[in-house]
Amino acid sequence: MSVSVCLRCSGLRGAVWSALRLRPPAPGSPCAAAGLRLFSAPAPGETRPSIEESTAEYKFVERLIPPSKVRHGAGKVSTGWVPPSPSPPDLPYMIRRSRMHNIPVYTDVTHGNRLITIVRKVEGDIWALEKDVKAFLKDVTGKDLPTQVNEVTMTLKVKGHFDRELKEWLLNKGF
C-alpha cells in the first residue's frame, strides 16, 4: 500500500513539474529530498531580471503621497475645520489630533439613553485636563457634571453631549 502511494506521489509530482514546465531541483539540494524548489532562488544557469529605477515618473507618485504636515496658516475652512496652532499650548496635558487632523472629541449613547462625551488621545496629566474640563462645563451648564478618567487608555468621559462646546474650547486653547 505504501509503495503504491509513493509511486502515485512521485508520478503526480512529475505530472505537476511537466504541466508547469518547471525544472526539478538539483539532486544534492535540500529541496530535492522533499520534492520542492525554492522559488526565491533562481534556477541554475538562470539570471534574475534587473530592476531599473526611474525618476521620470515619480511626479505621478508624489501626488498620491499625503502631506506629512498640516498647513497652519490656512485659517478656518468652509467645512468648519481649523488647523492646529503652530506651537502647542503650555499646559500639563496635550491632546493630539486624530489621523484625519480633527479634535478627538466624540459622543456616545450607551444603554439606550445614557449620553456620554469622550475626549481621546490625551497625553500628560489627564487629571489636570479633568479639572479644567469640569471648571469649563460648570461655567457652561451651571452644575458639576460627573466625569470618568481612564489612565490606561488616556480618555476622559463626561456625562452628557458636550462635543461642540468641548471642541470649541480645545480649539481656543490651541489644540
Overall, the morphology is: elongated
* N-C termini distance: 75 Å
Query: What is the number of helices?
Result: 5
Q: Mean pLDDT, as a whole number?
A: 80
Helix content: 25-40%
Q: How many beta-strand elements?
A: 6
The CATH topology label of the largest domain is Translation Initiation Factor Eif1
Beta-strand content bin: 15-25%
Low-confidence stretches: 1-8
- What strand order characterises the main sheet? 2-3-6-5
Radius of gyration over C-alpha positions, nearest whole angstrom: 31 Å
List keywords for this structure.
single chain, 2 domains, 6 strands, two-stranded antiparallel ribbon, 31% helix, 175 residues
Describe the structure.
- A 4-stranded antiparallel β-sheet has the order 2-3-6-5.
- It has helices at 2-19, 30-34, 58-62, 126-141, 163-173; strands spanning 93-95, 105-110, 114-119, 122-124, 147-150, 155-159.
- It is elongated, with a radius of gyration of 31 Å.
- The chain folds into 2 domains: 1-43, no CATH class; 55-175, 2-Layer Sandwich (Translation Initiation Factor Eif1), CATH 3.30.780.10.
- It is built from 5 helices and 6 strands.
- A hairpin with a 3-residue loop joins strand 2 (105-110) and strand 3.
- The longest helix has 18 residues, at 2-19.
- Helix content is 31%, strand content 15%.
- The termini are far apart.
- It is an alpha+beta fold and 175 residues long.
